[in-house]
Here is the input.
Amino acid sequence: MKSAFAPSDTGPKNLLDFDPGSLEQFLAGMGEKRFRASQLLKWIHQEGVVDFDQMSNISKDLRQRLASVCHIRTPSIVFDQTASDGTRKWLLQTECGNRIETVFIPEESRGTLCVSSQIGCALDCSFCSTAKQGFNRNLGVGEIIGQLVLASSVLEAGQRVTNVVMMGMGEPLLNFNNVVGAMRLMMDDSAYGLSKRRVTLSTSGVVPYMYRLRDSIDVALAVSLHAPDDDLRNQLVPINRRYPLKELLKACKDFAAAGNRRKITFEYVMLDEVNDGPHQARRLSRLLSHVPCKINLIPFNPFPGSDYRCSRPQVIQRFQEILMQQGYVATVRKTRGEDIDAACGQLVGKVQDRTRRTTKAGLGEDMKF
Ligand code: SAH
Here is the structure.
C-alpha cells in the first residue's frame, strides 16, 4: 500500500513502528525469544523508558545490539496548551516536518486521549476544519502510538490515559493497517492493556474497511452520521456518495452483531437549520431502528471560514428529546477545550504538502478492494 508510508523504512528502525506480533518477529530475527518483546513493551509503555541502557532486565549484549539497529522515537512537541477546562492539546511535529494534533480530555473518572491517524484528511466533510487542510499522508504505527507514549510521559501527576478515541485528524479506516497495529499496542497487556470498550475508532463510513475492522480487532466503533437521509449526507459527508446509508447501516448492524451486545455510537453534529429539525430527528430514529446503538449529538464547533452555525441549545434539546422518546440513548457531547481550538473538528495541525490531495488521489490506493 503506497500511502501506508512508514517513516523509518530507511535507516535505524523505530521500535514504536512494530505492533506486538511484528516486534516478536523482529526479535526472533535477532535470535531472541518471544518474551523479550513483552519485556521491551513494558519498558517503553509502562515504565516510559526509551533508553536501552536503562532496561535492566535485558542483557547488555542485547541492549547494545538493539541500540545499533533501532531507536525509540515519538513525534516531538511543538506546542503544549491547556484550556481553562483542563483539556490539553499538543501540536506535534513528525520527522518530515508535518504537524498533527493530539488532545487529552480529563474527566473525574477517566482521561481520554483523542489521537490523530493521518496528516490532514482526504474526505472533505463540509463542516470539518481538518478537511480544509487537505491530505498529506498516513501516519505510521510509531507516530500513532507515539502520541500515547508522549502524552503518558508528560501528563500531570494523578492523570492517566484510560480511554483512547481515534477521533483526531484523519480518517482512521483509510490508514487501516497502521491504525490497527497501534490499537493492538493500546490493548496489549504488556503495553497499555486498554479494554475493548476503552478504545474507540470513529469513521465517516468507509464501508469495506468496517467489515475488515470487524474481522481484525474487537474495538468500539463510532460512526459519523450527521444526516438522516442520503441527499443531505451526500452534501455533508461526501463519502456517502460512494457508500450510501443503506450500505453503511448494514455494515453497522453486522459490526454490532459480531460482538457481544456491542452498540455502535452514532455521532451527529448539530448544524443550525441544516440537520437539526424535529422531522429530521424522527427520520433519524426510524433510520436507526434496527441497529443497536446510542446517539451522541455534537454541538458544531465553528472555525475560521466555516459556513455553518451551531444549533440553538433548545433545538438540540428538542432533538435529543425526540430520540429519547423513541427509546434511544441520546447524549449531547460537552464541548471541551474550545478556548484552545481543541474541540471536535477544530484540529488542523499544519499540512505542508497538500499536493497529494484530490478526492481521487486521497482515497486512491486504499480504496481499491
Ligand atoms: N474521520 C473520522 C474521525 C474524526 S472524528 C470520522 O469522521 O469519524 C471527529 C468527529 O468530530 C467526527 O464525528 C466529525 O464528524 C466531528 N466533527 C468534525 N468537524 C466538526 C465540527 N466543526 N464541530 C463538531 N464536530 C465536528
Observations:
- Residues 3 and 87 are 32 Å apart (CA to CA).
- The pocket of S-adenosyl-L-homocysteine is lined by residues 125, 127-128, 167, 171, 202-204, 224, 267, 269, 298, 300-301, 344-345 (CB under 6 Å).
- Residues 1-8, 355-369 have pLDDT under 50 and may be disordered.
- The first helix runs from residue 20 to 29.
